[in-house]
């Protein structure tokens, strides 16, 4: 789908072996080029973190759902199953990714007992109760499951979104009913535009006596300098014990074009924050192996290391040039397809 292809550039995974790697977006390792321990050892070494106050633990790195739709179906299934076999349990997806193909492939990957290994998340675009309900039913069918662990309201990027989501007949009503019916376990929301919109969504939840289980947002070395979710939203989530889902650690690869940071620095910076999971796209086995290596090699960074990274990116980050998801409509799928907000037709 052209919209998704425009708003989702290649996300590079990374590992300790990439400290000297090229920062080009299309620089991807071949399968087997990143040395990993046996699957059993990798699985036991995978760092796990609490998902807010849900009582669930998730892997420090998660697999982005959009990229599962890019390689062949067989390869997409292999990526998901290899990730699960090696200790990654968090799987991201969305109702609209690749015209639903991403969910369909993930559903096939979760057969043969793999569903039991996964914490499964997907996202819905519908802002009305009816559209959200219909989109959820489609996601359940595509994913081949009767219960999704986490469903999030996708692309909360407009000032009007909080009121619309919580209005009578809005999507929050649909999600609450679905949770009561046992179709979903937890509820969250995502967005990438401005921290003030996230804060407004959290205030709307408080006003309506509702508590989100998770929030997904950009967390990266440039966000710290410009319209910062890290500085403005993250402390609120930590205080409320809401699960923090980090995304765009490399800004869909665009941050690397600044030539100020390497992939491993980007992923490790996001992992160093109080994130529950850092979601990264893996469209090949080589990229998946990098992501696994990055996770098992991560060590907490000291203040001097963090300061050095932030200083390196300060000038490049100042105007949001490399965070195009904040400063343009390039990543705004529901702006290009407003019908997704009110219908279940892709």
Average pLDDT across residues?
A: 91
Cross-sheet strand order for the largest sheet: 3-4-5-6-7-8-9-10
**Largest sheet properties:** 8 strands, parallel, barrel
Indicate the structural class: alpha/beta
- What is the CA-based Rg, rounded? 18 Å
> How much strand?
5-15%
- Please provide the ordered H/E string of secondary-structure elements: HHEEEHEHEHEHHEHEHHEHEHHHH
Topology, number of strands: 10
Gap from first CA to last CA = 10 Å
Low-confidence stretches: 1-26
The general outline is globular
Number of helices: 15
Query: Approximately how much helix is present in the residues?
Result: 25-40%
Give an overview of the whole structure.
By secondary structure, this protein is an alpha/beta fold. 39% of the residues lie in helices and 13% in strands. The protein is built from 15 helices and ten strands. The strands form two sheets. An eight-stranded parallel β-barrel has the order 3-4-5-6-7-8-9-10, surrounded by six helices. A two-stranded antiparallel ribbon has the order 1-2. Strand 3 (61-64), helix 3 and strand 4 (90-91) form a beta-alpha-beta unit. Helix 4 packs across helix 5 (129-143). The model is unreliable at 1-26 (pLDDT under 50).
């Amino acid at each position: 789908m052209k919209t998704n292809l425009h708003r989702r550039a290649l996300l590079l995974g990374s590992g300790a072996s990439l400290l000297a790697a090229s920062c080009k977006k299309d620089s991807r390792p071949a399968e087997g080029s990143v040395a990993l321990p046996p699957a059993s050892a990798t699985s036991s070494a995978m760092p796990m973190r609490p998902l807010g106050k849900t009582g669930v633990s998730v892997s420090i790195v998660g697999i982005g759902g959009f990229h599962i739709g890019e390689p062949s179906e067989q390869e997409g299934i292999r990526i998901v199953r290899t990730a699960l076999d090696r200790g990654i349990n968090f799987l991201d997806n969305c109702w609209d990714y690749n015209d639903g193909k991403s969910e369909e492939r993930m559903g096939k990957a979760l057969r043969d007992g793999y569903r039991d290994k996964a914490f499964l998340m997907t996202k819905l675009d519908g802002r009305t109760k009816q559209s959200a309900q219909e989109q959820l039913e489609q996601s359940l069918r595509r994913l081949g499951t009767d219960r999704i662990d986490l469903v999030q309201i996708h692309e909360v990027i407009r000032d009007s979104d909080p009121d619309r989501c919580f209005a009578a007949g809005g999507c929050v009503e649909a999600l609450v009913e679905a949770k009561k019916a046992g179709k979903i376990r937890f509820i969250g929301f995502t967005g990438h535009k401005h921290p003030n919109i996230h804060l407004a969504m959290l205030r709307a939840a408080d006003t309506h006596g509702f508590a989100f289980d998770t929030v997904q947002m950009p967390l990266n070395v440039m966000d710290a300098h410009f319209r910062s979710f890290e500085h403005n939203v993250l402390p609120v989530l930590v205080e409320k014990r809401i699960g923090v889902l980090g995304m765009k650690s490399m800004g869909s690869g665009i941050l690397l074009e600044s030539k100020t940071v390497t992939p491993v620095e980007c992923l490790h910076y996001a992992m160093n924050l109080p994130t529950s999971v850092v979601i990264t796209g893996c469209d090949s086995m080589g990229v998946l192996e990098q992501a696994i290596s990055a996770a098992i090699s991560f060590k907490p960074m000291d203040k001097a290391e963090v300061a050095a990274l932030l200083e390196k990116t300060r000038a490049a980050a100042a105007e949001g040039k490399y965070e195009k998801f904040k400063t343009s409509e390039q990543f705004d799928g529901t702006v290009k397809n407003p019908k997704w907000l009110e219908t279940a037709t892709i």
